[in-house]
Specification:
Number of helices: 8
Order of helices and strands: HEEEHHHHEHEEEEEHEHE
Number of domains: 1
Largest sheet: 5 strands, antiparallel
Strand content: 15-25%
Shape: globular
Helix content: 25-40%
Strand order of the largest sheet: 8-7-6-5-9
Structural class: alpha+beta
Protein backbone atom coordinates (compact mmCIF):
# COMPACT_ATOMS: atom_id res chain seq x y z
CA UNK A 1 0.00 0.00 0.00
CA UNK A 2 2.76 2.47 0.92
CA UNK A 3 4.46 1.94 -2.41
CA UNK A 4 1.18 2.70 -4.18
CA UNK A 5 0.79 5.93 -2.22
CA UNK A 6 4.36 7.02 -2.96
CA UNK A 7 3.86 6.21 -6.63
CA UNK A 8 0.64 8.23 -6.67
CA UNK A 9 2.37 11.19 -5.01
CA UNK A 10 5.17 11.05 -7.57
CA UNK A 11 2.66 10.93 -10.40
CA UNK A 12 0.69 13.80 -8.91
CA UNK A 13 3.81 15.99 -8.98
CA UNK A 14 4.20 15.17 -12.66
CA UNK A 15 0.62 15.58 -13.91
CA UNK A 16 -1.38 17.14 -11.05
CA UNK A 17 -4.84 15.92 -10.11
CA UNK A 18 -6.38 14.47 -6.97
CA UNK A 19 -5.29 11.22 -5.31
CA UNK A 20 -8.09 8.91 -4.26
CA UNK A 21 -7.55 5.90 -2.02
CA UNK A 22 -10.15 3.25 -2.82
CA UNK A 23 -10.40 1.50 0.53
CA UNK A 24 -11.91 -1.93 -0.03
CA UNK A 25 -13.12 -2.23 3.54
CA UNK A 26 -15.74 -4.83 2.71
CA UNK A 27 -13.11 -7.45 1.92
CA UNK A 28 -13.65 -10.43 4.21
CA UNK A 29 -10.41 -12.39 3.75
CA UNK A 30 -8.52 -12.34 7.10
CA UNK A 31 -5.23 -12.72 5.23
CA UNK A 32 -5.62 -9.14 3.98
CA UNK A 33 -4.77 -7.76 7.43
CA UNK A 34 -1.77 -10.00 8.05
CA UNK A 35 1.20 -7.78 8.91
CA UNK A 36 4.83 -8.86 8.59
CA UNK A 37 7.26 -7.07 10.90
CA UNK A 38 11.02 -7.45 11.29
CA UNK A 39 12.46 -7.80 14.81
CA UNK A 40 14.76 -4.85 15.48
CA UNK A 41 17.45 -7.00 17.14
CA UNK A 42 17.28 -10.47 15.60
CA UNK A 43 16.11 -9.48 12.12
CA UNK A 44 13.53 -12.27 12.25
CA UNK A 45 10.29 -11.55 10.40
CA UNK A 46 7.08 -12.29 12.29
CA UNK A 47 3.48 -12.18 11.08
CA UNK A 48 0.88 -10.46 13.23
CA UNK A 49 -2.86 -10.26 12.67
CA UNK A 50 -6.09 -9.41 14.41
CA UNK A 51 -7.82 -12.06 16.47
CA UNK A 52 -11.52 -12.64 15.90
CA UNK A 53 -14.42 -13.49 18.17
CA UNK A 54 -15.53 -16.52 16.18
CA UNK A 55 -14.90 -18.46 12.98
CA UNK A 56 -17.86 -16.96 11.13
CA UNK A 57 -16.65 -13.40 11.71
CA UNK A 58 -13.08 -14.32 10.83
CA UNK A 59 -13.92 -16.06 7.56
CA UNK A 60 -16.99 -14.27 6.22
CA UNK A 61 -17.50 -10.83 7.82
CA UNK A 62 -16.35 -7.72 5.93
CA UNK A 63 -13.53 -5.74 7.52
CA UNK A 64 -15.95 -3.08 8.73
CA UNK A 65 -17.89 -5.76 10.66
CA UNK A 66 -14.92 -7.58 12.19
CA UNK A 67 -14.79 -6.29 15.77
CA UNK A 68 -11.54 -5.25 17.45
CA UNK A 69 -10.60 -7.38 20.46
CA UNK A 70 -9.19 -5.04 23.13
CA UNK A 71 -7.23 -7.87 24.76
CA UNK A 72 -5.59 -8.52 21.40
CA UNK A 73 -4.78 -4.83 21.05
CA UNK A 74 -3.18 -4.67 24.52
CA UNK A 75 -1.19 -7.87 24.00
CA UNK A 76 0.02 -6.75 20.58
CA UNK A 77 1.00 -3.33 21.92
CA UNK A 78 3.28 -5.08 24.43
CA UNK A 79 5.02 -6.94 21.59
CA UNK A 80 5.43 -3.98 19.25
CA UNK A 81 8.48 -2.35 20.92
CA UNK A 82 10.47 -5.27 19.49
CA UNK A 83 9.55 -4.14 15.98
CA UNK A 84 8.70 -0.43 15.79
CA UNK A 85 9.50 2.88 17.45
CA UNK A 86 7.77 4.21 20.55
CA UNK A 87 5.61 6.69 18.63
CA UNK A 88 4.04 3.89 16.57
CA UNK A 89 3.47 1.79 19.67
CA UNK A 90 1.62 4.69 21.32
CA UNK A 91 -0.39 5.32 18.15
CA UNK A 92 -1.43 1.67 17.95
CA UNK A 93 -2.28 1.40 21.65
CA UNK A 94 -4.36 4.58 21.58
CA UNK A 95 -6.70 3.70 18.72
CA UNK A 96 -10.32 3.39 19.87
CA UNK A 97 -11.90 2.16 16.63
CA UNK A 98 -14.46 -0.59 17.15
CA UNK A 99 -13.92 -2.45 13.87
CA UNK A 100 -10.91 -3.63 11.89
CA UNK A 101 -11.50 -1.36 8.88
CA UNK A 102 -11.64 1.80 11.00
CA UNK A 103 -8.69 0.62 13.10
CA UNK A 104 -6.46 0.24 10.03
CA UNK A 105 -7.61 3.58 8.62
CA UNK A 106 -6.75 5.35 11.88
CA UNK A 107 -3.28 3.78 11.80
CA UNK A 108 -2.74 4.98 8.23
CA UNK A 109 -3.88 8.49 9.14
CA UNK A 110 -1.86 8.55 12.34
CA UNK A 111 1.24 7.64 10.35
CA UNK A 112 0.58 10.54 8.00
CA UNK A 113 0.09 8.30 4.99
CA UNK A 114 -3.23 9.78 3.89
CA UNK A 115 -2.52 13.50 4.11
CA UNK A 116 -4.13 15.25 1.17
CA UNK A 117 -5.66 12.00 -0.07
CA UNK A 118 -9.39 11.43 -0.51
CA UNK A 119 -10.62 8.15 0.92
CA UNK A 120 -13.50 6.32 -0.77
CA UNK A 121 -14.80 3.19 0.96
CA UNK A 122 -16.44 0.24 -0.76
CA UNK A 123 -18.34 -0.43 2.44
CA UNK A 124 -20.13 2.93 2.33
CA UNK A 125 -23.81 2.65 1.42
CA UNK A 126 -23.78 5.81 -0.71
CA UNK A 127 -20.82 4.52 -2.75
CA UNK A 128 -22.58 1.22 -3.37
CA UNK A 129 -25.81 2.89 -4.43
CA UNK A 130 -23.98 5.04 -7.01
CA UNK A 131 -22.17 2.07 -8.55
CA UNK A 132 -23.29 0.14 -11.61
CA UNK A 133 -24.88 -3.28 -11.37
CA UNK A 134 -22.52 -6.23 -11.88
CA UNK A 135 -23.36 -9.85 -12.58
CA UNK A 136 -20.89 -11.36 -10.09
CA UNK A 137 -21.21 -9.98 -6.58
CA UNK A 138 -21.55 -10.42 -2.82
CA UNK A 139 -24.50 -9.42 -0.65
CA UNK A 140 -24.24 -8.43 3.01
CA UNK A 141 -26.55 -10.62 5.06
CA UNK A 142 -26.87 -12.07 8.56
CA UNK A 143 -25.67 -15.54 9.48
CA UNK A 144 -24.87 -17.02 12.88
CA UNK A 145 -25.34 -13.67 14.57
CA UNK A 146 -22.79 -11.95 12.31
CA UNK A 147 -22.87 -9.74 9.24
CA UNK A 148 -21.34 -11.78 6.41
CA UNK A 149 -20.71 -11.50 2.65
CA UNK A 150 -22.64 -14.12 0.71
CA UNK A 151 -21.65 -14.64 -2.91
CA UNK A 152 -24.08 -15.08 -5.78
CA UNK A 153 -24.02 -18.82 -6.40
CA UNK A 154 -26.19 -20.85 -8.78
CA UNK A 155 -29.81 -19.83 -8.10
CA UNK A 156 -29.14 -18.16 -4.75
CA UNK A 157 -26.37 -17.06 -2.39
CA UNK A 158 -23.78 -18.98 -0.43
CA UNK A 159 -20.73 -18.83 1.81
CA UNK A 160 -17.70 -20.58 0.35
CA UNK A 161 -16.51 -23.14 2.89
CA UNK A 162 -13.52 -24.26 0.87
CA UNK A 163 -12.93 -26.37 -2.22
CA UNK A 164 -16.26 -27.23 -3.82
CA UNK A 165 -18.22 -26.81 -0.57
CA UNK A 166 -20.78 -23.99 -0.26
CA UNK A 167 -23.27 -23.18 2.48
CA UNK A 168 -26.49 -21.68 1.14
CA UNK A 169 -27.84 -18.63 2.99
CA UNK A 170 -30.69 -16.16 2.55
CA UNK A 171 -29.81 -12.71 1.19
CA UNK A 172 -31.64 -9.66 -0.16
CA UNK A 173 -30.14 -8.75 -3.52
CA UNK A 174 -32.65 -5.97 -4.23
CA UNK A 175 -30.99 -3.51 -1.84
CA UNK A 176 -27.97 -1.98 -3.64
CA UNK A 177 -26.55 -0.72 -0.35
CA UNK A 178 -25.83 -4.37 0.53
CA UNK A 179 -24.08 -5.30 -2.72
CA UNK A 180 -20.33 -5.31 -3.42
CA UNK A 181 -18.35 -6.79 -6.32
CA UNK A 182 -16.09 -9.80 -6.56
CA UNK A 183 -12.43 -9.44 -7.49
CA UNK A 184 -13.25 -9.82 -11.18
CA UNK A 185 -16.01 -7.18 -11.25
CA UNK A 186 -14.48 -4.71 -8.79
CA UNK A 187 -12.63 -2.58 -11.34
CA UNK A 188 -15.63 -1.57 -13.44
CA UNK A 189 -17.79 -1.25 -10.30
CA UNK A 190 -15.28 1.12 -8.68
CA UNK A 191 -14.66 3.09 -11.85
CA UNK A 192 -18.37 3.75 -12.35
CA UNK A 193 -18.21 5.95 -9.24
CA UNK A 194 -14.65 7.32 -9.14
CA UNK A 195 -14.04 7.97 -12.86
CA UNK A 196 -10.28 7.93 -12.33
CA UNK A 197 -7.79 8.61 -15.11
CA UNK A 198 -4.88 6.62 -13.63
CA UNK A 199 -4.76 3.49 -11.50
CA UNK A 200 -1.76 2.47 -9.40
CA UNK A 201 -1.65 -1.33 -9.39
CA UNK A 202 0.36 -3.74 -7.28
CA UNK A 203 2.74 -6.24 -8.88
CA UNK A 204 0.31 -9.12 -8.38
CA UNK A 205 -2.79 -7.04 -9.00
CA UNK A 206 -1.78 -5.94 -12.47
CA UNK A 207 -1.70 -9.59 -13.54
CA UNK A 208 -5.38 -10.27 -12.87
CA UNK A 209 -6.96 -6.89 -13.64
CA UNK A 210 -8.95 -6.93 -16.86
CA UNK A 211 -7.68 -3.57 -18.06
CA UNK A 212 -9.72 -3.84 -21.26
CA UNK A 213 -12.83 -3.19 -19.17
CA UNK A 214 -11.62 0.35 -18.49
CA UNK A 215 -9.76 1.60 -21.58
CA UNK A 216 -10.05 5.18 -20.31
CA UNK A 217 -7.71 4.38 -17.40
CA UNK A 218 -3.93 4.47 -17.65
CA UNK A 219 -2.65 1.64 -15.47
CA UNK A 220 0.62 2.32 -13.67
CA UNK A 221 2.50 -0.42 -11.85
CA UNK A 222 3.60 0.69 -8.40
CA UNK A 223 7.23 1.67 -7.90
CA UNK A 224 9.51 -1.07 -6.65
CA UNK A 225 10.57 -0.82 -3.01
CA UNK A 226 12.78 -3.03 -0.86
CA UNK A 227 11.09 -5.66 1.34
CA UNK A 228 7.69 -4.92 -0.14
CA UNK A 229 6.25 -7.94 1.67
CA UNK A 230 6.87 -6.29 5.05
CA UNK A 231 4.87 -3.59 6.81
CA UNK A 232 5.97 0.03 6.55
CA UNK A 233 7.17 1.28 9.95
CA UNK A 234 8.34 4.78 9.07
CA UNK A 235 11.56 6.26 7.76
Amino acid sequence: MVSKIWTALRLQKEIGGEIMFFYHDCDHDPRETQTRLRHSKTGEVQSLNFTFENKIQKKYSPLFAKRVDRNWQANTARQLPNFVNEALVELFAGIKAENVADFCLEMYRGMGLLEGIRVERSGAADFRCKAIDVDDYFVDTRHGGELVRARKHEDGFALHQGGSSFLKVEADCLDKSRITPTRDTRLCWMQSVLHCTHYIAGAGEIKYLNTAEAPEIEFVERDVIERSDEAYVGE
